[in-house]
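Figure 2 data, in text form.
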Amino acid sequence: MTARISLRDLEDAQVGPPMHSRKNRVFRSSFEGRECIVKVYRGEWRERAALEYGVLRDCCDRGVMAAVPLALLDHAIVMGAVEGEVASEAFDRMFLPDSSLQKGQRERFADALAEWLSTFHAAFDSRLSRGDTILRNFIMSPGGVVGLDFEEASRTDTISDLGQICASAIMTDPPFTQDKMDFAGHMVRRYWHHSGEDRSRDLAAAVSAAIRHYAPFRSNGGELLSYASRIDDGDLAIG
């Protein structure tokens, strides 16, 4: 759709403090009488605005649950607000030492993520990876899992997405606990089920690559890299 509002108007209508984003500026605002999320791309990432807007639009057209794109404003996009719990926060809550959640609830959570990912890949004929497939980029809404942040979508092997979401889960503090390894394993098996294709042979390399990509941004990066080496050597298996 053609925007009838400027970025300055959206900035003037900003609600609350800026939202977390490592690369861009993200904030809540109001667009045509509805609450929205505005994502302003900075510096070298400015060209990704059109890319992400296009992926969001395609998701809506193809039945993939994602933030609804409302407008494209040069180097910014406007999206409908998504209510629910950030998946990374839900995951942390489920793995608290005193959590009363049963194994079955964790497995249903893993299954929901696996189903969303397989649905996304199928919608794009397994030719598009969503990229940066970490728990923080999903919302557990009342209607199910909703995907966010598609600016790194690319025509690469979709196994990278599965490797990234597994790495995102097992790298949480404390990393590589048996419960988290079991969660990742269940998520992988459900992904194979939903997608109808088992690529177990490619999984270890995808998880290791994801850990090596994210480790430099973590305070315990050295420890994480040692786990990646163990996966490469076959000492640790997922799925």
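Caption note: The helical segments are 7-12, 48-61, 87-94, 103-123, 159-170, 178-195, 200-214, 221-232.
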